[in-house]
Design a protein that fits this description.
heterodimer; A: mainly alpha; 0% strand; B: alpha/beta; 12-stranded mixed beta sheet; globular
């Protein structure tokens, strides 16, 4: 049915218009481009090498531990505070970067908690934050919780029949991991690692602020310099293409690691796994969860403490704050809905390709290409679209709409990650039944897909909306006086020396994102165990 | 999906309908974000000017001065701006080179700038001095010169900003260049062990400073005034440097051939009058360029008064900036 290819094509049309339009705009404004010339500088070559190195390390240190954390969470469905922990895990990535950095610094910095504890024990303070370790700690703080949240649903894909078999065979924890969990993880790990890699690859403020100096810098910084200080758009295009090429190669290499194993339809009878009763496993899981909670929650607690120490009343009473909250919410919901719809559309098409047309490579390529938007910097998209549209349209009038669309596109990779695997599973398990009963179209969506998919849909929507709430990069490019969102307000406070009020604003922002997660995940996803 | 595209089209349509302008003349001013924020000079300035002109000001707020310039370069002749406010003298030569600006017709002889001002295009609206701000409780003996800072105890750290992404960062680089000339690269190499980190913008390093990460940060001589006036603490002070302090002069200019050029000229005149200048000290935390009503707040009397004001000519910055930044990069990334 050719009809099933249409939604994906529409998503790609949107992607192509925005990304292609941005590059076209930049190229037209740049005139001629001398490709490759910028690589002659030894500094640039060093920056490229460092960018790749720190991104690979960051991805490894975020996703590696995330496997342990997600496994512990999967094995301990009734761990006290589990649901709260998961929801708090949604926060680091959506916080404005500077807020997250200040949280990390409050724990590991020169005068952070860690050094104060050392001082309490009469030990020498340690300085390790302002070089590569600082970058890695901060990247892990932002991305480990995200990776955990993205990996965890993989476990619910393991059918009860498998666990019953594992129990009958008397498998221990290690055998369960090797024979059951690892093959499944291999399917999702490259995608999750790819997202984290791309986020760290284009990291800017974290790398500069915690890098200790310009020796530790990323291509993104050079790109910013080319656009802002040299206005050399040709050079900017080259840097942007270089980012896409390198990340594309890394992500595609990761995809080769994905085995092509079709799932088999099962009865999905619930059954406990065989390795949860052992004491060794209990101790390990508890230790892993406590360590992860400490790592992620301590900086968050520092953010909360700083905020509560500030002028809470004055900030809350400010009308501009609530206007910004309303504006942030409107933009976030619009972008979240658009991202979820576009991602869902793309996945329907890739499911069609994968399951009915037996073209799994084509399907995977579609998903990978769409995910690569994460390496295209908002600065490139914003500047390029501006160059393209400003001669023909009133860009300020459509500024907010552009912000919605760009944020929606930046949210696509998360939608693909959260909604993709369950959507494929529904297809594999119910396609034949639907075909034999003649359920199709709207009825299929209502009776089959929605009840099974509402939870991941809720997660995707919550994640993309919350990410948009925290966005500064895109809104700053199109901002006018009347479009201040919450992160912009926060930065304005900081620029006006009001660091204490900014800290309060950060808590309001975190609370808003937390609320969004809770309401959307509950409201759309329904109740029940995750 | 169709419904989505439809609703986007609807949203686009309603947004453009909203922006349809009324009959009152509107002056569109591009500026940087913190100027128009609730805590910046923007709101009071808008009110004061609109009371005199039967017009409306529409602010377009971008990230910083560099973003302003690159937006202008991008829009070129299609710019919506009637006036641009918030460039500084390290950007004005390149801004003038766009050919977008028209000369002003103001008599600026009454301005009280520490330097002579004879730019035919740009009109200054405030100025300040870069300075090393330190925490008195942690640094009882601050450096008294750039030389002492550069050759001082490396265990006493300073927070700097990157000249590629930050105005103060660029200002400090120019300061070192002005004082050290050909020896600047060597000076940076000696300073490097004292630098805790080089952040993207001023906000990052100032936040780290107030969080106690380092006893010194690069900021302005006027920064302590905020803490004295708003937070009633004199914990932070600026260190006076014997070689003099590098200046930042912030300017505005009007766009040639804009439909509201008369209004723009009027705004420039208003900009150097008390209605605007009175706002500067305690909202932008800089010095006004002309006599303000009742003089400066008394707390400004406690601030460091530089013995010598240092400033490169805009043309010189434009000609050498890239080369100097490369020199800085080489020295700092060894």
């Amino acid at each position: 049915m050719i009809r099933r290819l249409v939604p994906g094509a529409l998503t790609f049309l949107l992607l192509g218009l925005v990304i292609g339009g941005a590059f076209a705009g930049l190229l037209r404004a740049a005139g001629t481009v001398d490709y490759g010339g910028f690589l002659e500088s030894s500094y640039t070559r060093r920056v490229v090498a460092f960018t790749i190195w720190q991104a690979l390390l960051s991805a490894l240190l975020s996703v590696g531990p995330a496997i342990l954390v997600a496994r512990a969470l999967a094995r301990r469905p009734s761990f006290p505070g589990r649901a709260l922990l998961l929801r708090l895990f949604g926060l680091p990535l959506v916080l404005p970067t500077l807020v997250g950095i200040l949280g990390v610094v409050a724990i590991y910095g020169q005068s952070g908690l860690f050094n104060r504890l050392l001082a309490g024990l009469h030990l020498e303070p340690r300085q390790f934050l302002y070089s590569l370790p600082g970058i890695l700690i901060a990247h892990a703080f932002f991305n480990l919780p995200l990776a955990t949240r993205l990996l965890l649903p993989a476990w619910s894909a393991i059918p009860g029949e498998t666990w019953r078999l594992a129990t009958q065979l008397g498998m221990n924890s290690r055998q369960v991991f090797r024979l059951i969990e690892w093959p499944l993880l291999r399917q999702v790990l490259p995608g999750v690692a790819g997202i984290v890699l791309m986020l760290c690859f284009t990291s800017f403020a974290v790398v500069l602020t915690l890098g200790g100096g310009p020796a530790n810098s990323t291509i993104e910084v050079a790109l910013y310099q080319a656009v802002r200080f040299e206005f050399d758009l040709g050079k900017a295009v080259q840097f942007a293409l270089l980012q896409v090429a390198i990340c594309g190669a890394l992500v595609v290499a990761g995809q080769r690691f994905v085995p092509d194993v079709p799932l088999t339809p099962t009865a999905q009878r619930p059954q406990d796994r065989p390795d949860i009763a052992a004491w060794g496993g209990r101790i390990v899981d508890t230790a892993v969860l406590l360590a992860a909670a400490a790592f992620v929650l301590l900086p968050l607690a520092a953010v909360l403490r700083n905020g509560l120490a500030g002028p809470v009343g004055a900030v809350i009473a400010d009308r501009a704050l609530w206007l910004a909250v309303a504006r942030s919410l409107a933009v976030a919901l619009a972008a979240g809905l658009l991202a979820t719809a576009a991602g869902w559309g793309l996945l329907l098409t890739s499911r069609e390709l994968r399951l009915r047309r037996y073209r799994p490579r084509a399907a995977a390529t579609m998903e990978t290409v769409a995910s690569l938007v994460l390496v295209v910097s908002p600065l490139v998209i914003g500047t390029g679209l501006f160059a393209l549209l400003s001669p023909v349209a009133d860009v300020f009038a459509i500024g907010l709409a552009l912000v919605v669309i760009i944020n929606a596109i930046m949210g696509l990779p998360y939608v693909i990650r959260t909604l993709g695997p369950p959507l494929m599973r529904v297809g594999e398990q119910h396609d034949r039944l639907c075909a034999s009963l003649g359920i199709a179209g709207w009825n299929r969506l209502r009776l089959v897909e929605w009840p099974l998919l509402r939870r991941p849909v809720g997660t995707a929507l919550a994640l993309t909306a919350a990410l948009t709430v925290g966005d500064l990069g895109v809104i700053a490019l199109f901002g006018t006086q009347d479009t201040a969102t919450l992160p912009l307000l926060l930065y304005q406070r900081m620029a006006a020396y009001q660091l204490d009020a900014a800290a309060v604003t950060a808590v309001v922002l975190a609370a808003l994102c937390f609320g969004l997660f809770a309401i959307i995940e509950r409201g759309v996803g329904g109740h029940g165990r995750r | 999906m169709h419904r989505f595209l439809f609703s986007i089209a609807l949203a686009l349509g309603s947004l453009s309908a909203l922006s349809a302008s009324a009959e009152t003349p509107t002056l569109t001013i591009y500026t940087y974000n913190s100027f128009t924020s609730e805590w910046g000079p923007g709101p009071a300035v808008t009110k004061a000017f609109e009371a005199t002109c039967a017009c409306k000001i529409e602010w377009v707020a971008l990230e910083d001065g560099a973003a302003l310039l690159s937006r202008l370069q991008l829009e070129s002749k299609n710019t919506k701006a009637d006036l641009v406010l918030g460039l500084d003298t390290s950007l004005t030569a390149e801004a003038a080179a766009t050919g977008l600006f028209a000369p002003h017709a103001l008599d600026l002889s009454h301005l009280k700038l520490p330097i002579a001002w004879n730019d035919p295009v740009f009109v200054p609206f405030d100025y300040g001095y870069f300075a090393v701000v330190y925490d008195k409780t942690k640094l009882p003996k601050p450096p008294t010169s750039l030389k002492e800072l550069i050759d001082g105890d490396p265990s006493q750290k300073i927070l700097l900003q990157d000249p590629r992404s930050s105005t103060p960062g660029l200002g400090f680089m120019l300061w070192v260049k002005e004082v050290y000339g050909d020896q600047a690269a060597a000076a940076w190499t000696r300073l490097k062990p004292r630098v805790l980190t080089v952040s993207k913008g001023w906000s990052e390093s100032y936040a780290l400073f107030t969080q106690g990460e380092a006893p010194m940060v690069l900021s302005y001589t006027t920064s302590p005034a905020y803490h004295i006036i708003e937070e009633k603490t004199d914990k932070y002070a600026a260190a006076a440097f014997a070689e003099g302090h590098y200046m930042q002069v912030e300017v505005a200019g009007r766009i040639a051939g804009s439909p509201e050029s008369e209004l723009a000229e009027k705004f420039l005149a208003f900009m150097v009058s008390p209605g605007f200048q009175d706002q500067i000290p305690t909202t932008n935390w800089m010095y006004p360029v002309s006599e303000s009503t009742g003089g400066l707040p008394k707390e400004f009397g406690q601030l460091v008064q530089p013995g010598k004001s240092l400033l490169f000519a805009p043309e010189e910055v434009a000609a050498h900036r890239k080369q100097w930044i490369d020199e800085w990069l080489q020295a700092m990334s060894q």
